[in-house]
Amino acid sequence: MKDLFIRNDMAPTVSLLYSAVEENTLRLASIVSRMTHSELYYRGRCQTKNSTAQLLHHIANVDIRWVWRIKENRIPDHIEQVYGPMTDENGRLPEPENQPGLDELLRRHQHVVNELKSICFTLTEDDLHKPLSYDNDTVTVRWGIWHMADHNRYHQAHIEALKKEWKQDLAEYER
Question: Where is the DinB-like domain (predicted)?
Fold first, then answer.
């Protein structure tokens, strides 16, 4: 039976939210687990879609920003330097620099999840109500952690669609 794991070393709601992030991270890794480098960087038949590599890079980029918002309610300059900008000069998701392989992209995201986990150990139920700045608005820490899980799951659908298109293109090419 599937369920979200509730940890004894975190506040109950914090644990529930962290568990949703962790579950979606594991599901994401499973979805991409056997991708070749070519499939990882496939951008659709017309080369107009975001590749799985771009989406993995984007998820890690967004999530590390949430981690820092929760930590200090600000995003330090060194995060911009390490993870790069959210979009490129054309407003699109940037390609990961130097086309890293799947293991590296997953390792980067796991690092972010580990950072979140270390923060979640320190959060109380009351901390979940703390306000954070986001998109010219204010949200709670609770909403931020939930958003990390939801955003990851949202892009899993895009990756699944790319995988399907890749397989169709591969089948047509082999005919």
Answer: 24-159
pLDDT at 175: 61
Fold of 12-28+47-174: Four Helix Bundle (Hemerythrin (Met), subunit A) (1.20.120)
What residues does each domain of the chain span? 12-28+47-174
pTM for the structure as a whole: 0.93
State the Cα–Cα distance between residues 162 and 40, nearest whole angstrom.
9
52-72 and 12-32 helices, crossing angle to 10°: 160
* pLDDT, mean over the chain: 93
Q: Is the pLDDT of residue 55 over 80?
A: yes
With 0-12 / 13-18 / 19 or more C-beta atoms within 10 angstroms meaning exposed / middle / buried, residue 32 is buried
Q: How far apart are CA 22 and CA 45, in angstroms?
A: 32
For the range 99-102, what are the long-range contacts, defined as Cβ-Cβ under 8 Å and sequence gap of 24 or more?
99/37, 99/41, 99/53, 100/53, 101/37, 101/40, 102/32, 102/35, 102/37, 102/40, 102/56
